[in-house]
Specification:
Blueprint (H helix, E strand, L loop, with lengths): L1 H32 L2 H7 L1 E4 L12 H8 L5 E3 L4 H11 L9 E4 L12 H7 L2 H17 L4 E2 L23 H16 L11 E5 L18 H8 L1 H8 L4 E4 L3 E2 L2 E2 L4 H11 L5 E3 L8 H4 L5 H11 L4 E2 L3 H11 L5 H17 L12 H7 L3 H13 L2 E5 L12 E5 L28 H8 L5 E5 L12 H9 L3 E7 L20 H9 L5 E6 L7 H6 L2 E4 L7 H9 L64 E8 L3 E2 L5 E9 L5 E11 L10 E10 L4 E8 L1 H4 L1 E2 L5 E2 L3 E8 L5 E9 L2
Parallel strand pairs: 1-2, 1-10, 2-3, 3-4, 5-6, 6-9, 12-13, 12-14, 14-15, 15-16, 18-26
Antiparallel strand pairs: 7-8, 11-16, 17-19, 19-22, 20-21, 20-25, 23-24, 25-26
Length: 739
């Protein structure tokens, strides 16, 4: 029996090795046939000129390039008709090398899921993997091979518009999410329901100065390694097929031309075998940075630094042959980049069948799958954060006689899609469920639903105030849906003022005077500032942008068919002056304890504390934490500590709780944050039910990057904190790491 098992294992290994070797050999054989110009062609990526819903007309110049084998990839081509048309042109080239089609499938394709920051609020890794899997299924069925996602940038600045595209401020949570999303998009690369993932933006784009898009990043190597790089390493570990470098410079060197992050770290230390694509035009932009004096120098910097594919700048196309002819770079350097790209085309099976992703029947089925609709509704509900429910207005009774639904967000459809929604035809009139429709679908025949817009998102007109007040006075409860426009968050959507836009908060004040119970729904792609509302309104729900099924999901939460469980993945500030604000800061030599201000690290006009902390979120039920136990209070670096506790549902509703474990290294050779998230579990409890959960503390959870950038632990004392948020710590203990 042992012999048989050994034979099977050897045979399995042999087959796997043979398949891998086969792709390697085929890549090398193809490279030998390619001219220098054809090799450089594989490093170019162009965008599609077609109107997405318009006629199939190809730009003559691009048609010529594709037929000549001078193009490796295209972006913004979607739908099997379009991808097939371009691929047919590629099959007319001398070597018939297929094109890669990339697209920004950020939070869904036809079926739109909550924006990534909202999904991060669910802390539900399996849900995030599922949403990426469904997005990949729909995109792949539409002829797409490659998504420019996930964005794994850590950001502590809500002014930056692209926080909506990431996982928030915490490295541990962001690392787990990066891994899950890559796995969701890719599955098994080459399957017809998978697309290549692209970890972006490499690196540290979320630390842009002032939260301003495309801006510089200036930080220490220790912060780079400890805070910003781990999610990218997780993407490598998950098998991400591609990376995208960032627009920003890091400590004076543009990411696109940064050898340290691309050659030394990514392709060197991490032994990354995929390829790196520039962000849109970023190779050419090194001239604007003041780093490269012309296109030739920009190309030289980018290719030597490790940028393999040029997105839309044409710099490689125009200059690489000159650099080779002048012997400034070797053909071997270009071969390395081409080899990485060709390997992915082989892994996708495009050489066997260039049109294998171009099946109109499969596209029709995938884009009309009711299971996808069901999934996005369930996932969207998991992302809704209950910020306040002081008077227990929620959940609403289904016997409520009259509901006033007021606000600029109530009836629009497109607005629920969020910034990075794929622009498909008839998007507003087909499958998006507005918040109004969601409520209509939920209420019974005996409930009357009234509407008033109240005001616009922006502007100062109060013309709709009186109608809103009249409608509110006729109701038993008021739902007020407000926030920022969907396109006020996203790429190039940085805001210096992140308060509620326009006069929406004034509308809240007027409606409060009616004395009616009011539920505030806040729609946004980032943490907003709404201090008066937070202080004076007892019921606040943060809905983010929830996608195709936003209306139904919000109604599910409001009426208690889903008990909210989400927790904030970013800190909500009181004022822009606190930014950057994040929970895992250092203590300083003069910490402000209990808001002491005299000669302390504090503001004289503002508390240090946030309005809502990282990890915060309420439920319709309540949870009690008890019976904390540690298997030992001293451990060596090769040992582990098991931490157990009981969590009990002490309220009136079944619910889910996200139990969070934080650690604090009390004394170290480099000062450590006051607390760091090191683990979490999401559990579901029936009314009165108690569950014992267990965490494991190992040496990795105690390690950090020292002054030599060595990832290591140091003997000493550690505080252990377990709670419902970074501030709501329910249980504490301590232990010691010994030699």
């Amino acid at each position: 029996m042992k012999y048989i098992l050994k034979t099977i294992l050897l045979l399995t290994f042999s087959i796997a090795f043979s398949q891998s070797k086969s792709i390697d050999l085929r890549v090398e054989e193809l490279l030998k046939k390619m001219t220098l110009e054809e090799k450089i062609g594989q490093l170019n990526q162009y965008t599609d000129d077609w109107n997405i819903t318009g006629p199939l007309i190809v730009n003559p110049n691009k048609e010529t390039d594709v037929k000549a084998g001078m193009l490796g990839s295209m972006l913004n081509v979607n739908g099997v008709e379009r991808t097939r048309k371009y691929q047919e042109l590629a099959m007319q080239s001398r070597l018939k090398i297929p094109l890669l089609f990339g697209f920004d499938v950020i939070h869904g394709y036809k079926t739109t899921f909550p924006i990534p920051l909202a999904e991060a609020a669910s802390w539900d890794l399996s849900a995030m993997e599922l949403s990426a899997r469904i997005a990949a299924t729909e995109a792949a069925a539409s002829g797409i091979h490659w998504t420019f996602a996930p964005m794994v940038d850590i950001s502590r600045d809500p002014r930056w518009g692209r926080v909506m595209e990431g996982a928030g401020e915490d490295t541990f949570l962001g690392t787990k999410i990066a891994y899950a999303r890559v796995k969701g998009f890719q599955g098994k690369l080459g399957d017809l329901n998978s697309v290549m993932a692209c970890a972006k933006h490499f690196a540290a784009y979320g630390a842009a100065v002032g939260g301003r898009e495309y801006n510089s990043v200036d930080l220490s190597d220790r912060m780079l390694w400890e805070v910003y790089l781990p999610p990218f390493k997780a993407a490598v570990d998950a098998g991400a097929a591609t990376f995208m470098n960032a627009f920003n410079d890091i400590n004076g060197i543009p990411s696109t031309g940064n050898k340290y992050i691309q050659r030394d770290i990514l392709k060197g230390k991490w032994n990354y075998k995929g390829f790196v694509v520039s962000d849109w035009g970023s190779i050419g932009e090194m001239y604007t940075h003041g780093y490269s004096k012309d296109g030739i120098e920009a190309a030289f910097s980018a290719i030597t630094a490790g940028s393999d594919m040029d997105m839309e700048s044409n710099t490689y196309r125009n200059t690489l042959s000159q650099l080779v002819n002048k012997k400034r770079i070797s053909v071997a350097l270009i071969d390395d980049a081409v080899r990485r790209i060709l390997r992915k085309k082989f892994e996708l099976g495009l050489f066997e069948d260039p049109f294998r992703f171009c099946n109109s029947e499969r596209q029709k089925i995938a884009l009309n799958n009711p299971e996808h609709t069901k999934a996005t509704r369930e996932i969207a509900a998991k992302c809704v954060v209950l910020l306040k429910n002081e008077k227990n207005i929620l959940p609403l009774s289904k016997e409520t006689k009259t509901i006033a639904f007021i606000g600029p967000m109530v009836k629009p459809k497109r607005i629920n899609h969020g910034f990075w929604a794929v622009n498909l035809k008839d998007v507003d009139s087909t499958y998006i469920v507005s918040q109004w429709e969601g409520l209509e679908n939920k209420i019974g025949k005996n409930t009357k639903l009234l509407y008033a817009k109240g005001c616009d998102i922006e502007g100062d007109s109060k013309a709709g105030f009186q109608e809103a007040i009249d409608v509110a006075n006729q109701s038993d409860v008021v739902l007020l849906s407000i926030g920022e426009r969907y396109n006020m968050s996203g790429e190039a959507k940085s805001r210096s003022n992140i308060h509620l836009p326009g006069i929406q908060e004034e509308l809240i004040k007027e409606l409060q005077k009616t004395g009616k119970p009011i539920v505030i729904l806040i729609n946004a792609g980032r943490p907003l500032i709404f201090n008066w509302t937070a202080d004076n309104m007892p019921t606040i729900v943060y809905t983010w942008w929830l996608g195709s099924e936003a209306g139904n999901a919000i109604a599910d939460v409001l009426f208690g068919d889903y008990n909210p469980s989400a927790k904030l993945p970013m800190t909500f500030p009181r004022a822009e002056g606190q930014i950057p604000i994040y929970y895992n800061h250092f203590n300083t030599g003069r910490p402000s304890i209990n808001e002491e201000k005299l000669y302390k690290s504090s503001y004289i006009d503002l508390p240090n504390t946030p309005k809502f902390p990282f990890g915060y979120g309420l439920s319709y039920t309540t949870f009690n934490y008890s019976n904390l136990k540690l298997s030992k209070t001293k451990m060596k670096s090769n040992e582990k500590i098991e931490v157990s506790l009981d969590v009990t549902n002490t309220g009136k509703y079944e619910g889910e709780e996200i139990v969070q474990l934080y650690l604090h290294d009390k004394f170290a050779s480099l000062i450590r944050p006051i607390k760091e998230l090191k683990d979490f579990q999401k559990i579901k409890l029936a009314v009165g039910e108690t569950k014992t959960i267990t965490f494991v503390i190992d040496n990795e959870k105690l390690s950090f990057y020292n002054h030599k950038l060595e990832f290591t632990s140091e003997p000493g004392d550690f505080d252990l904190m377990i709670g419902a948020s970074s501030e709501d710590i329910r249980l504490k203990s301590s232990f010691e790491l010994v030699q």
